[in-house]
Design a protein that fits this description.
DUF952, 24% helix, 3-stranded antiparallel sheet, ADP-ribosylation fold, 105 residues, DUF952 domain-containing protein, alpha+beta
């Protein structure tokens, strides 16, 4: 099983320099949000991209994450109809299975 996270390429580059990823979602850090937003599958990810990233012109990266050993909880956010994985704590680079440019469908 893997989970997915959409990141600005610049944020991912900074994380590789720092040794861990600490961005929760567009414009918000782990410290501000309390967890890192993720998606359970590509359908959720594409819906998130359409809803929250449609006006973003910066390059995006799709992070595929192995959640083994991480504090990941499936939770239903306020106003949502489905559960999303939330990562409580920073994302270690070693948990990222792949980081590929994200092309909108």
């Amino acid at each position: 099983m893997t989970i997915l996270h959409l990141a600005l390429a610049a944020d991912w580059d900074a994380a590789r320099e720092a040794g861990e990823y600490r961005i929760s979602t567009l414009g918000r850090t782990l410290e501000e949000e309390g967890f890192i937003h993720a998606c359970a599958d590509h359908d959720q990810l594409h819906a998130v991209a359409r809803r929250y990233y449609r006006d973003v012109t910066d390059p995006l990266v799709l992070l595929t994450i192995d959640p083994t050993g991480l504090d990941v909880r499936l939770e239903i956010p306020a106003g949502a109809q489905e559960a999303f994985p939330h990562l409580y704590g920073p994302l270690p680079l070693t948990a990222v299975v792949s980081a590929t440019p994200y092309t909108r469908p």
